[in-house]
Amino acid sequence: MLNIILLGLPGAGKGTASAPIIDKYHLAHISTGDMFREAMSEGTPVGLEAKKYIDGGNLVPDEVTAKLVEERLQKPDTTPGFILDGFPRTTVQAELLEDILQKLNRPLTSVISIDVPEEILVERLSARYICKNCGATYNKISNPTKVEGVCDRCGGNEFYQREDDKPEVVKNRLKVNKEMNTPLIDFYTAKNLMTRVDGNQAPEKVFAEIDAVLATK
Ligand code: AP5
Ligand code: MG
Ligand code: ZN
To answer: Atom 39, ligand 1: which residue's CA is nearest?
Structure first.
């Protein structure tokens, strides 16, 4: 059983790295960002609340986010293991997660931080595009579809850009997330769970580094 947290600033490649890991290890992918976007598109109360923060690149309140994760972790598909992508993002969330996992008796296996220099993050986010049909994520510069305009995974031909990838919002997202990142890394380093990988290399290489860490667990 692998219970993993993937840390990384916006655009570090958490979603991209999650895909081959869940395929290989059959883990549930728990991305709070994806869950909020789904709730926003459905117009649920959580979605309406989250929208107030996400549109400006701010963090959704800790309790709202932790509750969402707690409910998600009770679904049976998480039993063989899970990847938390984008949660926790604050030390308060990390403390709340400790309580949740203790209650569910699901200890963490490993926390992996994908490290990428800030200037590269800005570039990546502005060039990101996503398949409307299956959610696969691409990049105009670093990771385009093999055939232009056709999704590698599902063959779809409609794509979109995320609302919060606009330059004004990206600036604030990076600022807000950066402030929280170091204390979070310190939190898990103190628990002996932390590994940092170089995210400024091709996606296959990032995956290989993460996979090498997981192989020892
Ligand atoms: P979320 O959706 O999690 O956004 P984020 O943290 O800003 O991260 P991203 O999804 O933008 O980046 P990523 O690391 O997944 O990178 P990706 O693989 O796509 O959260 C959105 C919002 O929800 C937050 O701003 C906040 O408001 C709210 N929220 C979510 N969780 C919360 C929480 N816990 N607490 C409070 N609020 C919360 O890759 C990016 C691009 O780079 C793509 O184009 C990709 O193709 C490319 N790329 C990826 N890897 C590589 C590589 N190795 N080399 C070259 N290009 C690459
Ligand atoms: Mg993501
Ligand atoms: Zn697709």
So the answer is: 13
